[in-house]
Amino acid sequence: MRRLLINVLTGCFYYSGLVWVLLQRRRRSRPILLVLNYHRAFAVNGNLRKHLLFLRRYCRVLPLEQALEELYSFDQKRELRDRRTPVVLTFDDGYRDNYTHGFALAKELQIPFAVFLPPAYIESGENYWWQEGGRLVQHAQVEKVVLEKVIYHLKKQEDRKALKQVIFTHLRDAQSVAERQAFLKDIHAALGSPSSFTSEDELMLPMTWEQVLEMEQSGLVTFGAHTLHHPVLSRLKDPTEVQYEVRGCREVLEQKLGHQVRTFAYPVGKPDDFGMQAPHEVEEAGYNWAFTTVSGVNTPQSNAYQLLRISIDASQHWLLLASIVSGIWLFISPLWNKAVFSLKPSQKML
Fold first, then answer.
1. Residue 141 is part of which domain span?
2. CB 298 within 8 A of CB 307
3. Looking at residue 46, what is its pLDDT?
4. Whole-number Å distance between alpha carbons of 172 and 151
5. What CATH number did the domain enclosing 284 receive?
6. What is the pTM of this model?
7. Cα angle value 93/95/100 (rounded, 5°)
């Protein structure tokens, strides 16, 4: 119902001509940059293709670093031939479907995008921690488990849901990567879940280095840093581990890619998630720009280490994307009841 109502509303914006009017108005506005934040590229309804076709028609879809350099070196006297709204597509985490589906579309439609990678996951090939709790519960080989003195009966749907949330919270709030991995090992043993993945799970796993390099060599896809192990940086107890995650990620990516890595995206990405130390560490590590998941539009006055991105999902209707790009959705969405209409990122996509 929530999605249907959003589609109806955004359809009214588009077919009334309001989206077109606002897009034309933006051609005469001050310089801005919209950065869209995806995670998965695959969606059963195939909406990513419709997203890209809309963006190709109505916007200037730019490579990430080119767009940032243009934004921060904007010359008021310089007239751009193409005054459509500049947009950048970013994908966080490096899911395998970014290669199988996103890259395939990029080549077909000649649209560039950027991917922010946590290289430890590419090295290990392991499932991302925010997905693992749900997978372990789904494939549990026991009927009940005790966690923090609470008994969860896995034949009961409400207990399964509660256990997934408890596991997720433990993993999110871990004070070190080592603590997170130890908890994962313990809960894996307690549930007796298999380590293997089904064919349906494979698109949720990380890309391989071979896939990363193929995408890089195409000239259509660029890569940025997303920490080594994707911890929630503000939760890390030891400040030196924050530094290690930020710097180590850049070192690994530069070694693999053979060139400087200039962009960074904070895991999860809200101010409470990256805290006060991380932006300083990112700047000290030599990155030029860093991205949050705080929604909004970037201007030449934007903080280069707390740039804004608008969350969007490949499964969502292209009409919603049209309303986002025109600016109407950013205006109206805070007025809606957050419990029903907010575009909160899924726990499965961080």
1. 129-191
2. yes
3. 84
4. 21
5. 3.20.20.370
6. 0.93
7. 145
